[in-house]
Amino acid sequence: xxxxxxxxxxxxxxxxxxxxxxxxxxxxxxxxxxxxxxxxxxxxxxxxxxxxxxxxxxxxxxxxxxxxxxxxxxxxxxxxxxxxxxxxxxxxxxxxxxxxxxxxxxxxxxxxxxxxxxxxxxxxxxxxxxxxxxxxxxxxxxxxxxxxxxxxxxxxxxxxxxxxxxxxxxxxxxxxxxxxxxxxxxxxxxxxxxxxxxxxxxxxxxxxxxxxxxxxxxxxxxxxxxxxxxxxxxxxxxxxxxxxxxxxxxxxxxxxxxxxxxxxxxxxxxxxxxxxxxxxxxxxxxxxxxxxxxxxxxxxxxxxxxxxxxxxxxxxxxxxxxxxxxxxxxxxxxxxx
Amino acid sequence: xxxxxxxxxxxxxxxxxxxxxxxxxxxxxxxxxxxxxxxxxxxxxxxxxxxxxxxxxxxxxxxxxxxxxxxxxxxxxxxxxxxxxxxxxxxxxxxxxxxxxxxxxxxxxxxxxxxxxxxxxxxxxxxxxxxxxxxxxxxxxxxxxxxxxxxxxxxxxxxxxxxxxxxxxxxxxxxxxxxxxxxxxxxxxxxxxxxxxxxxxxxxxxxxxxxxxxxxxxxxxxxxxxxxxxxxxxxxxxxxxxxxxxxxxxxxxxxxxxxxxxxxxxxxxxxxxxxxxxxxxxxxxxxxxxxxxxxxxxxxxxxxxxxxxxxxxxxxxxxxxxxxxxxxxxxxxxxxx
DNA sequence: TTGAATTGTACAAACGTTTGCGCATTTAAA
DNA sequence: TTTAAATGCGCAAACGTTTGTACAATTCAA
Lengths: 337, 337
Known about the structure:
The structure is a homodimer. By secondary structure, chain A is an alpha/beta fold. Chain A has helices spanning 7-14, 18-25, 36-48, 55-62, 78-93, 107-119, 135-143, 166-179, 195-210, 225-235, 250-262, 296-313, and strands at residues 67-72, 97-102, 124-127, 147-150, 161-164, 185-188, 217-219, 244-247, 272-276, 290-293, 320-323, 326-328.
């Protein structure tokens, strides 16, 4: 790498001191009454020399890195990619930059990433925690780092979060299936210990119980395509096959689709399907999938709002909010009444 | 934020000098013959105090940031999200971290991001350039920053790149349509000035001309869903409607699907469709889409290999490689012979 | 003419690391 | 014993910024 130009070079070139250069380049010229001609000279020299400020040096001095971190379980999941894209764009408006980490649904990687990010003096963290351990995250929060969990979070832990009302989403999805005459409903879940998953399962169960149905299956243990695939395969090995499947997220739904296709089971003729999470492609599937859409954009925006109110205003409240999901009715649920 | 623990605190606590602390914590204990007990004490103290090294300070001294940057046009596009995910994971293996930028298909944002990243002392850059200006990227390359373009790149510019053989992909896709009896083929393109787009168009045209067909339409000007949608709508306003559409990327294909669905035009009965770019969802569409799949994983790996050979071995060759795409034949092309 | 106020600028320390060099102290060899 | 080698560690400078303070020169009022 060619040696970089620094403010000292500019000082030399203009015959002014680095102090003056720094002040002009930081827009503090007026405040420190730097002469107009000096300002001109400095700005011109900076342009000519292609000066690029060294954030790290500045950060070392000021303690401000203008950086926040986002950790998601998998950028490959369009749901999280969407969040990342949104957050990235929103954060830029605050003059900050986002470092995106991908924990690959692996808590150990998550921890390592977190340390690396802390080493980089992040001023805030938005995280979709990928496991059920929360201590390492709470620890950072206690240290004073502004932290917001999104999508996934921890109940009964004093950490701010913004997520979807998963219970309600699952409850209404199940209700919808019930209202269409389904009784034998299978629910394919993700990571069991995760709060959203627990709440979704609970919403499902409550709706079932309210309908007086106690004979349902809840299977699966992982937010993966593979899990959706295998569990769907298994479901149709049983003597009593479900008339409807409730997939607890988009990747599981994909596995589901794959298995159903292989088995030549038609949606919604042979089985009805409803899933958590939306995606543009869902509309173009063989059968457009009815889904529980999470307000991704709102979640991102609110999370950032909270984060920056912690960063800038030193807000101390532990905000915990759940946004209402929205059911998008398409064609994957058959009325069997 | 709570005041952070630094090596000085450890030095104080252990009664050793910061020099010794630094050396032990950097694994240079043996090299500098630090006593075993001292090493123990230091490591223990670091753990007890929850020491987190300050990368920025270290970087300031050493010039190594252990950071590379990735800029993609849109994380929302699953194709780029996949690349980002892959690169993120691969880079970690080298002990580096990736800062991901999203240019939102906007060259001005790309430039701004680039500056911000340079301010953060990145040691390398992998970029999917979103426009047809290459000077700002070449400039960084000339400055000595290891740069690799992926997916999109510039012809006749001395910048390393790893991409797909777009010409071949488009040529064989077109050939495939022709072989199935299609004559009236419409091609919906993306950003016209972009190299991959140009090559795809060229592959399309060459195949058509070879078949003796000169009457074809090439429409569109943008890698957006909207573009695919509008152009498809327009195509079917004409008196002579195409029997096949060749979509030049996945987002365009989505717009295409949307328009076809609205117009109740069936694939492949009414029109055949083939698209560049693969995605898991493609298999589950109403009609699984035949596509030209790019070797995303290989592109990412090779790019990183090149990048680190520049970073570590000061490799100077301008590597420019094109990988063969793979046609995945599904059900969206009808044989009309 | 004097003194105060204003204007324009610079010194030097600090941020948390890393590292070339050098200095004790101990051990081993003669 | 004396001397050389080996062992263990610390000093202080440097990386590129920012900023509290200070100081000189000019302008202005009296």
